[in-house]
Write a structure and sequence with these properties.
The chain is of the alpha+beta class and 323 residues long. It is 42% helix and 21% strand. The protein has two domains: 153 residues, Beta-Lactamase (2-Layer Sandwich), CATH 3.30.450; 145 residues, Reverse transcriptase/Diguanylate cyclase domain (Alpha-Beta Plaits), CATH 3.30.70. It is elongated and about 70 Å long. The termini are far apart.
Length: 323
């Protein structure tokens, strides 16, 4: 086993890492959604956001079965990754002299495959990685490397505390900017793997009445309730966001329209149950419109949003039409 060397800028690197004030903080959805997406996109058992300290690596986010919150730096794969500026790939650790007898290879989690992209802090030095790993050897293409680099760029933005880049401040779910970036990555992967997807635009019904009769504070509470219900009802592989105002969107990864419709019906039931349990003075209802992604006739995310928006408004107008 070969322990990773310390970079020449180690003192600067550690100073920048500590200045982020992120070490040993609780898990956060803005990082967890990136590791969940990395697992889904690469079909990897484990994905991590790892920050490399002086003597250990600490995991800000863990997606998958990984029992440790940190490991020793001298046995870490990520300690090697931060020594370079490009993605590091180990297709079979047993064939690599640096890792073949590493405790993380010979014991749990029995790493064979590893791919990690270094994460830079605001000052431009490598402070950690976004990485995926698994117990089986595998190949990792140039396109895979590019996708991992794209996800790492978003993790870097979050490390720099630019939460507004991808996270809605009020509801703490993905915002429009984050959705457009992550959503296109999902569609690109669906196209590559010939996997279905469905997108639905959601618009709250009679939301203006809540604001007008109960005030904007209650309106904000209604939006937060709606987002909280989304966090409970939709799968980890689904991408959901607040686009603005009372408009939300869900991209169902791997589902065709009938399956997405079923999840929306479950969401509607949960939303009503939640409103009753919270003893709100209103009921939350929404209109929706689903469009399906077809890998043989692919549409851009923007085109799918336009189609879904049109179907949503048609559904909303039907509710307003006199019987």
């Amino acid at each position: 086993m070969r322990a990773p060397q310390h970079p020449a800028n180690e003192a600067q690197r550690l100073a920048e890492l500590h200045s982020l004030k992120i070490l040993n903080t609780p898990p956060e959805e803005r990082f967890d959604r990136l590791t969940r997406l990395a697992r889904r996109l690469f079909n990897a058992p484990i994905a991590l956001v790892s920050l490399v300290e002086a003597n250990q690596q600490w995991f800000k986010s863990i997606s998958g079965h990984y029992d440790a919150s940190h490991t020793r730096r001298d046995i870490s794969f990520c300690g090697h990754t931060i020594l370079q500026d490009e993605v590091m790939v180990i297709e079979n650790a047993l064939n690599d002299s640096r890792f073949h007898d590493n405790p993380l290879v010979t014991g749990e989690p029995h790493i064979r495959f590893y791919a990690g992209c270094p994460l830079q802090g605001p000052g431009g030095v490598n402070v950690g990685t976004l990485c995926i790993l698994g117990p089986e050897p595998r190949e990792f293409s140039a396109e895979d490397r590019a996708t991992l680099s794209d996800l790492a760029a978003m993790a870097e933005a979050e490390l720099a505390a630019f939460q507004t880049a991808t996270c809605d401040e009020l509801t703490q779910i993905t915002n429009r900017r984050g959705f457009m970036t992550l959503g296109q990555l999902v569609l690109n992967d669906c196209l590559l793997k010939q996997r279905p997807a469905s997108l639905t635009f959601l618009d709250l019904d009679k939301f203006k009445q809540i604001n007008d009769t109960l005030g904007h504070r209650e309106g904000d509470r209604a939006l937060m309730d709606f987002a909280d219900a989304m966090k409970v009802c939709f799968r980890h592989s689904d991408l959901f966001a607040r686009l603005g105002g009372d408009e939300f969107v869900v991209l169902f990864n791997g589902l065709r329209q009938p399956e997405a419709d079923a999840l929306l019906r479950d969401f509607e039931r949960y939303l009503q149950q939640q409103t009753r349990s919270l003893n709100r003075r209103y009921a939350l209802h929404f209109s929706s419109g689903i469009v399906e992604f077809e890998a043989n006739k692919p549409q851009s995310l923007e085109q799918m949003l336009e189609g879904s928006d049109a179907r949503m408004y048609a559904a909303k107008n039907e509710k307003k039409a006199p019987l």
